[in-house]
Amino acid sequence: MAIRILLVDDHPIVRQGLKTLLEGRSGWEVIGEASDGAEAVEKAKVLSPDVMVLDVTMPRMNGLEACRVLRRQSPGLEILFVTQHDSPQMMREALEAGARGYVVKSNAARDLLAAVEAVSEHRVFTALNGRNVPGLS
Amino acid sequence: MKLRILLADDHEIVRRGLRSLLEKHDGWEVCGEASDGREAIEKALQLTPDVVIVDIGMPNLNGLDTTRQLLQHDPHFKVIVLTITDSDQVIREALDAGARGFVLKSDAARDLVSAVEALQNKRMFFTPRVNDLVLAGFLEKGQTISRNEAPKLPTLTAREREITQLLAEGNSSKEVASLLNLSTKTVETHRSNIMRKLSFHSIRDLVVYAIKNNLIQIELPPPPKSPVGPTAA
What we know:
The complex is a heterodimer. Chain A is α/β, with parallel strands linked by helices. In chain A, about 40% of the residues lie in helices and about 20% in strands. The longest helix of chain A has 13 residues. Chain A starts with a strand and ends in a 10-residue tail after the last strand. In chain B, strands 2-1-3-4-5 form a five-stranded parallel beta sheet, with helices on both faces. In chain B, helix 2 packs parallel to helix 3, helix 7 packs across helix 10 and helix 8 packs across helix 9. Chain B is globular.
């Protein structure tokens, strides 16, 4: 299945790593990149991606704020957080903000492809570092 | 002959990004990867790379102590430190540890190739901020870079720093002993010495100390969202 993805992280080297991983999957395409939440909101409007891979901690507008804006602006867009925060509380906040998925950055190489696939099919995907969160996954 | 590079970062996704960046350069190859400092030392000794790139904030053994230990094994290792901050203290510790390059992670896509090229040509590479600080120190006639920073690690040995990091990461003495191939009793002795030297009475003190001194790093969550509705007068 073709999936058009927008990558959002303030570290270009992380975006590069995510991109090489995602583009290894046939039919998946990274159609754009953004380095903060405000740029993500703008690019989502122009590019209409299927899935946004979104960091939490970023300058200007953080990922949670961007997610709330995007929920109103682009209701068809599925949002997957990829973040350093290995925290059930942060995960709940991300889902409450409207995200469909949550993956910890240290496990991204393991979880990212399955997570993008799940959220692109409108399924919830959540994984903290080695543990499940009851009621969330 | 190709320039051989060893990458050490605890995030596989960052290593992928770095590898992809570096291998675009003709004549360079990533000869190995490590996900913590201890593995980096093992692989460096085994693979003898021309350049070692280490992240500062790695579990088990942080990048600064990895650099120190690598250079103790062999002073010819050329190490570039990757960091999320270029605070005075981190810069000073990286220089003290013997790093020959210092690159901010946020600028790695722009600076890392230049840094490796510099080391390849027997030069050093630092961010403009490091250069400014070194120059400022020189102009102050050998004054240290910043005398107002938090205290460093003057009294701890390399082994004590390793154990401090592992304890602060939440390992028990038994777990530390297993990781370092020591007896639990030896670790307990080191632990007592550390607590005595630093005048600490709890693990909490040790965790705070480890964070302040860059033995471990934490990422703070973004500030809470603004309250909705009327606010109290």
